């Protein structure tokens, strides 16, 4: 087991179990927030991380296979990611950590919390996927992989000016990050599609204050899904931001950071 050294803002960092991750660190608050991203580019979360850093020390890794983080061959499931981050919390010695899960990262955060809340002080989910609330024939999460790019942007953002747009005109490094993130998302969430059918039945094990935040114009998972998710987490509070889409932290970074800070 290896010690994690978080000393620079943008550096490759070795987590426990010999996994190297690209980690962004911001702020120097006494409270720590572990931000687990979705499939967005790291640059898209920059404003949110900066806003949250006004009150927290923020640690924001790219998951193995996303961004610039290599993926070991054995790391192929959301379970693996959950155990990786729980192991890091143990190795770091941190307690009372606010775990913030953004979209796909919300699924990872829930898998962490149902396993152990020993070092988690608060759970925050922003437009999370990860559970199945309806029946087997109910489609609750839009098909990210089959939707054309121009239509996908309209589902992800209430204001499509936040989107990268036509990839043919984007920077090469941005296109590579998008492709790599989508490839990793498919690896972790293809079958069953972006959820763990058992997770819903274990949410009662989330024994920390929880906040569920949703974009009112989320075209990937509707606000009703968010309310249903919050209702199944003991004592969870639900907040809706009407002018945001699926990546609410991109469109409303200050508002979400404020909700998290006031709840912590």
From TrEMBL:
Key word Repeat present: no
Cited InterPro entries: AB_hydrolase_1, AB_hydrolase_fold
GO molecular function, one term: hydrolase activity
Keyword Hydrolase: yes
Pfam family, one: Abhydrolase_6
Domain of life, per lineage: Bacteria
Residue stretches making up the AB hydrolase-1 domain: 47-257
Keywords associated with the record: Hydrolase
Protein name from the UniProt record: Hydrolase
